[in-house]
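thread: overnight batch results

M.L. [08:02]
morning all. the overnight job finished for the chain we discussed friday. pasting input first so we're all looking at the same thing
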Amino acid sequence: MNIMSIVDAVYKVLPPFIQNMAISYYGYKIKKERFNSSFYDKFIFFDESQYYSSIDLMHYQDKALCHLIKYAYENVPYYNRVFEKRKLKPYDIKNQMDLYKLPIITKKDIRENFNDFISTKKSKKNLKLGHTSGTTGTPFEILWDSNIEEVNNAILWRHRSWGGFNFGNKYATLLGRSIVPSNRQRPPFHRINYPWHQYLFSSFHLADKNLEYYFEEFDKQDIRFLEAYPSTAYILAQYLEQHNLFYEMKAVFTSSETLLPIQREIIEKRFCCKVFDYYGSAERVMFSGECEKHEGHHLCLEYGITEILDEKGEPVSTGQYGKTVCTGLYNYGMPLIRYEIGDICSIQEKTCSCGRGLPLLGPITTKAEDIVVLPSGKMVSSSVLTHPFKPMKNIEKSQLIQEDYDQVRVKLVKRPGYSDDDTRILVEGLTERLGQEVEISIEFVQDIAPGPNGKYRWVISRVPIVLGSGKIENLYNEDNKEHVKE
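M.L. [08:03]
and the structure it wrote out:
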């Protein structure tokens, strides 16, 4: 058992007020790290740069790109080899129009050459390890340096400010961390990060019988901002809908999943506010989000360079859809240049009436997933279930299929090196989130094909959601085929 497993096991048996203290201590440390003078300098700059003209923003990108290219050539073995093989020098990439001279890289390239993507000027122990499950349920790792961490934090808080939410405001979150032990049967179903004024509500206790306690705590603490997955915010909104209730928020922020029109409609209606959806890649190469005008996702040009390409790797016309290839401008620990992120989108010709110089994206096609419903009535977001998969290095693809309330089948495509220990760790992680009453079966397969519409679904649930006395069909049924992030 590693140190993190021990810490996690100890945390679970602590009384709630001690857990609050532990979370707040961690929150205090993170606050000191993330909200330093460098962060504030970046935030002030991004607050100004959003109103730059599109030409000025492109000039900014080109300058940052040239600096990154020179650095990668001199300090990143993988890119040095690429340049030498193609007989290129850094001065051959003068701006983003020259990026076609470099190859597109994929997750496979990074996995097979992981250490060669790391800067020789950075100590690996000083880099932060990030995980993403990917849109095909494929675990993937990336390293971040402190520079991209500060930039990501500044861009995130700029987006939150578009919804009137600033650091220091009290807010609630419903995300994927296991904050409240899953076997807890009575409230409180939240824990508190005092330095952040953050109330972390459990995504593992979303049963109809528990949800009134969530809203009682919202009301007691006068919480007016919510950050959640679309699915968890939707569950709360559906509870209000079923009981013909409203709870007035100032803004709801959603990310990590496809936000469906029906989810947006009910969330905005029942919370009496607008939803500010955003997209942020775990690879830290692309960020977009909705402003107060809600005319689409603004692509944050300061964050990275985004190319929209066809199957041949050629740029598509404005407004046309293509694969998303991104160059992050700030991660010098593990630079990613022309990285194929795996999503489909377009850059729109129209501009937003807000006056920002940041272009608008068309709907981003990402993964569309179901909500898993447990025998107890608890509802579990698919994003919550990605967490046991993120550290799994020996899984090529995965898919979860809920056949019944107490049956979940996991399809796995193994990599060489997969062992019984991997199965044990995975099942333990899923059991922690789904409970002992759910039978988890593992099925090893050669491949996992996309659905009839060509889209890959990582979680498929064949059971309805139960709220009050009624049942609601899971959103991603076989007839509901076309869902994209608005």
